[in-house]
């Protein structure tokens, strides 16, 4: 059995990552990069990198193919295009980038540190209406909100 972070780490052997400042430069060099945001719609609505395409992780694989309700034509046609996958912290995006590679995408990377790192580097984010997000206000969004029932019980015996 593997834990979530172990699964992410295993995928890093095959997935390249860009730091926010590297992605900023890549976007200047190649404005045709497809940014694929794999967070949930409510996360994207709160803030995202302008011009990114929302494709939630849960439908990614079917969104990459024709003839599905989830099909995203721009994504289907991007197998030869440079694609950078983004999420909140850079973990879901590693898993998604790995899936895209398995599905035949040739030039895929993940945004290391996710949009959290993008914000920390003072790069712009917009909300669902396309309005700039105050980066100081974004700090609350990036604060973890783990409920008491989501914490590991003190008497928990790990099955591994």
Automatic annotation (TrEMBL):
PROSITE patterns: RHODANESE_3. It comes from the Bacteria. Residues 29-127 form the Rhodanese domain. Pfam families: Rhodanese (PF00581). SUPFAM superfamilies: Rhodanese/Cell cycle control phosphatase (SSF52821). One of its GO terms (molecular function) is thiosulfate-cyanide sulfurtransferase activity. This is Rhodanese-like domain-containing protein. It comes from Thiolapillus brandeum.
């Amino acid at each position: 059995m593997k834990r979530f972070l172990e699964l992410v780490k295993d995928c890093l052997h095959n997935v390249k990552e860009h730091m926010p400042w590297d992605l900023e430069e890549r976007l200047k060099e190649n404005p045709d990069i497809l940014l694929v945001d794999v967070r949930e719609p409510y996360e994207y609505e709160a803030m995202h990198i302008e011009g990114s395409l929302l494709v939630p992780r849960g439908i990614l694989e079917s969104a990459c193919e024709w003839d599905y309700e989830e099909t995203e034509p721009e994504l289907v046609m991007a197998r030869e295009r440079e694609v950078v996958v983004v999420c909140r912290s850079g973990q879901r995006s590693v898993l998604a980038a790995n899936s895209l590679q398995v599905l035949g995408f040739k030039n895929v990377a993940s945004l290391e540190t996710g949009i959290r790192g993008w914000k920390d580097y003072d790069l712009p984010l917009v909300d669902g209406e396309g309005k700039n997000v105050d980066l100081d206000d974004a700090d609350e969004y990036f604060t973890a909100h783990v409920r008491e029932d989501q914490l590991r019980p003190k008497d928990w015996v790990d099955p591994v």
